[in-house]
Amino acid sequence: MADVKLTHVKKIYSNKVEVLKDINLDIKQGEFIVFVGPSGCGKSTLLRMISGLEDISAGTLEIDGQVVNDIPPALRGIAMVFQSYALYPHMTVYDNMAFSLQIAKVSKDDVDQQVRKAAEMLQLTPYLDRLPKALSGGQRQRVAIGRAIVRRPKVFLFDEPLSNLDAALRVATRMEIANLKESMPDSTMIYVTHDQVEAMTLADRIVLLSAGNIEQVGSPLELYEHPANVFVAKFIGSPAMNILPCRIEKTGEQTEVSLSAKMSVTAPITTQASEQSKAAFFGIRPEDLSVVASEEEGFLSGTVSFIESLGEATLLYVQVPGCEDMVIAKESGTLSIQRGEQVHLSTAPEKMHLFDDNELSYRR
Amino acid sequence: MVASSKRTPLTFLVHATVLFLVVLWTIPTAGLFISSIRDKDQLSVSGWWTALSTSEQRLVTRAYEPKSQVQQGDRFVIRGNLLEGGSGEIARFGFSSLKPEAYAVGDVAEMKKGRTLQVNANGDYVLSSPTEWKGSRGQRIFYTAEVPPRFTLDNYREVLSAEGLGQSFINSLTVTIPATIIPILVAAFAAYALAWMRFPGRALLIAGVVGLLVVPLQMSLIPLLKSYNLIGEFFGVGSKTYVGIWLAHTGFGLPLAIYLLRNYISGLPGEIIESARVDGASDFDIFRKIILPLSFPALASFAIFQFLWVWNDLLIAMVFLGNNQEHLVLTGQLRELLGSRGGNWEILTASAFITIIIPLLVFFSLQRYLVRGLLAGSVK
Ligand SMILES: Nc1ncnc2c1ncn2[C@@H]1O[C@H](COP(=O)(O)OP(=O)(O)OP(=O)(O)O)[C@@H](O)[C@H]1O
Ligand SMILES: [Mg+2]
């Protein structure tokens, strides 16, 4: 049992800035939770509060049903992996991993057994006698993970563990972490990143934070398919979702919105009659747009002002008359469209998103 | 790396400066050392840079006393050697202080009353007289000798035993070692607390430490001595003891020690310390197992400073230890020697070299920690 429960948790630093405002979160045992959000939104702060390295200004934090607000980090049953590895530079890999057990006065044989087991798991056995400075970045990160494993914590905390690694190593280590989770199904893991690929691939549930608030909690696909608001919609997915200001023309089970004087579209999203004539936001993901031959088939038309060919896909930046921002369309493969050409875009109706004037989704 | 293989004017300047500093430092030290192992007679007539060439010395000695004369035929003869078995070569000689170089070797000098003196290059002399030699003292012989370089440890033997330098050496060590270790220990604890522990008034304490850095030592000497004596009287401790000087040096060294070490320790990566905290280490564990080993370069460099400063100190030693012979430190002893044996260069140079040996050893054994980066590999 290692549930983590945050109730009305707040963080106010000494400079009176409220960095986290009323965080409520219920994490079940064995879950892999990923905190994502833009830089400075408070992800690390939240993680450090769970770890006990940072005081909790208000609210309660429960681990395993026990309020741990005032319990020191070592007694919370957590282990933390830092972004900078934070290995003890003067100790060998073995001593780095054995440190916490030695502090806890575990018998020598047990220490040895656990360290070797963890080293085996992370393929670190050949390096046990080395100092951290004689390891590569990936190996150092594995030592940091190994140091967490030997403590057999109830909750693992990772703060951007991969951000110092190069792209290839990042993918490999990401898979290692996924494997690690699989081999320890009972441990709860909380993982901070600002990389949405990491979030999408690793998470059971994603917690999306912005400016000290939780924007949405859900599985990666939930966040992708049903973003609760414009922020989530734009944050998840790359390139970001196209958001076009519009006006609601007809309410009901099918809502008709006008994008400009000439263009209107009907989305299978229910709106109340009271919403009639209100301003709203229409959202559509670039990968859900496809180029069609005639104006009748599509719902958006414009001139291509820029083309990015990525090989596996092509990005079209389309200037739609009456819309301020360019609409991005992502087509798979290569296209024979030229700059300046007129294109028509269509989509499947169920892929459409509609947000009200407070940027909250109508699909609730 | 690539740039450094090309000789830019700047690197040339750097090398020239380093060379200049090395020469500037080495030459006096070498001179001191060479002087201290030269024969005292040679030292008094020529500088240390001539140590390897033979020196010309004007010397005077007395021939054997008349009672060693032997009669050979009708003459009474005294034989001996001016150099007494030492090596060297005699160039000229004489028998009167007015003309000490009157004769070349091999010549026969005619003295009064038909007496003659002959001196050979190897120092053998023959005094011969038609009448019996009288008196209790031998004839004075002046000579100019070419003496080859002679090196000896006699000077050291003399200063260490006869001049009491051995005792002062031990006194100096007795003062310096605890006066280096105590402030470092105290300062390391304080520096860790001031850098990484959160408690009210921390900033004020740091400001206080910085403020103490600028208090002139001379200003605080007398109040310190008075209060020390007062407190010492209460506990029945005499006024001039080693404990007193240890405390004094500790006090004077602490502000700088705390300041330097705090700057270093607060520069250690915070995540290492947080990581240790998550691993269950108490503040004392963190200090002992993480901070101390990682701060070794800073501790070593401060140790060098403090050691040199205490070793070379005269003022505090005079005030807190006095200058009675059994407590006299090396600097005090040197000062005494300057007064009493100011003309005896062999004594002064040997004493001076003994005084600088320990600082040199300390510096060379610890200097590698000044440059080594212990942190490599800890954080990205
Ligand atoms: N000790 C502190 N005192 C005051 N404000 C702080 C302190 N530490 C962090 N903050 C503020 O708290 C906010 C959140 O910081 P945090 O480190 O949690 O961001 P983050 O989401 O982890 O960002 P990143 O992705 O860049 O790591 C930031 O605006 C930061 O300026
Ligand atoms: Mg962060």
Write up this protein.
The complex is a heterodimer of chains A (364) and B (380). Chain A is an alpha+beta fold and 364 residues long. In chain A, 23% of the residues lie in helices and 32% in strands. Chain A folds into two domains: 4-235, P-loop containing nucleotide triphosphate hydrolases (Rossmann fold), CATH 3.40.50.300; 242-355, OB fold (Dihydrolipoamide Acetyltransferase, E2P) (Beta Barrel). Chain A has eight helices and 20 strands. In chain A, strand 17 and strand 18 (327-332) form a beta hairpin. Chain A is elongated and about 80 Å long. The two termini of chain A are 32 Å apart. The mean pLDDT of chain A is 87. With 380 residues, chain B is an alpha+beta fold. Chain B folds into three domains: 3-50; 54-148, Sandwich (Immunoglobulin-like), CATH 2.60.40; 156-378, MetI-like fold (Orthogonal Bundle), CATH 1.10.3720.10. Chain B has 14 helices and nine strands. In chain B, the strands form two sheets. In chain B, strands 2-3-8-7-6 form a five-stranded antiparallel beta sheet, with no helix packed on it. Chain B has a four-stranded antiparallel beta sheet with strand order 1-9-4-5. Chain B starts with a helix and ends in a 9-residue tail after the last helix. The model of chain B is unreliable at 373-380 (pLDDT under 50). At the A-B interface, strand 6, helix 2 and helix 4 of A face helix 9 and helix 10 of B.
